Amino acid sequence: MRYQFYREHKYVSAALNDLERLIAKTDFREESGLTKVAEEFSALAQMLKSHAQYEDESLHSLLKKKNSPVYLHVEQDHIHQEEQLAEVQSLIDQVGSARTNEEKIALGYKLYLTYRKFVGDNLVHLHEEETIILPELQRLYTDKELQEVEAETYRTMTVDEMKEMLQHLFPYMNPSDKEAFLRDISELEPAKYSILKERLSDLLDKGELHNLHVAAF
Question: What does DSSP assign to residue 197?
């Protein structure tokens, strides 16, 4: 199987939908409800911005080097995403400054509709990255060249940071996804992996640990 990016989209998709469900059931008349939504949205927005920056700088730059224009639409999506995130934040602020419960309920519903549309647009965006951008990268580059994109990320990460990243991602992934992440770390940063593998019981179940032992990495 060819080298893949975007496995983390499983986590991104789940995070988007988790917040949609939270907004859907929040009583915006209660300050605690709005505070929870605001905190969760702030964390999500920061994650999405960082993810988009990584893709623009690390993946789309590869396409630019080969004069492939397929990334252009996706980068426009990233710009539009910034605008949508600002719109959602504005609605959160409006709910917070509303004077009556009726206003809070009405604005909360508008917030839900706006965020739900954002989720729908973002899921289409993720789909296009995996079905258009990824095949183009695989066509233009070898697996080894693609793996090197991740090398710089792992060079700058500590073992604790790697473990924290995997703790966030692994609950949303199947065993082959998990093995792909661990294989990358073991091949690109073997010294760090030798430490990380002693902590894998916190990340994998017994069956997955056994399969990793059989795979010998």
Answer: G
CA distance linking residue 201 with residue 197, whole number of Å: 8
Residues 6+ apart with CB under 8 A from 48: 12, 81, 85, 122
As separate numbers, helices (DSSP H) first and strands (DSSP E) second, the chain gives 11, 0
Q: 3 — alpha (psi -120 to 50), left (phi > 0) or beta?
A: beta
Say which residue the tokens 């010294």 belong to: 191
Q: Residue 47's closest CA among 21, 11, 77? A: 11
CATH architecture of the domain with residue range 9-141: Up-down Bundle (1.20)
| pLDDT at residue 148 tops 90 | yes
Q: pLDDT for 161-196, tens place per residue?
A: 999 999 999 999 999 999 999 999 999 999 999 999
Domain segments of the chain as ranges: 9-141, 157-215
Q: Supply the pTM of this predicted model.
A: 0.90
Question: How far is CA 71 from its chain centroid?
Answer: 18
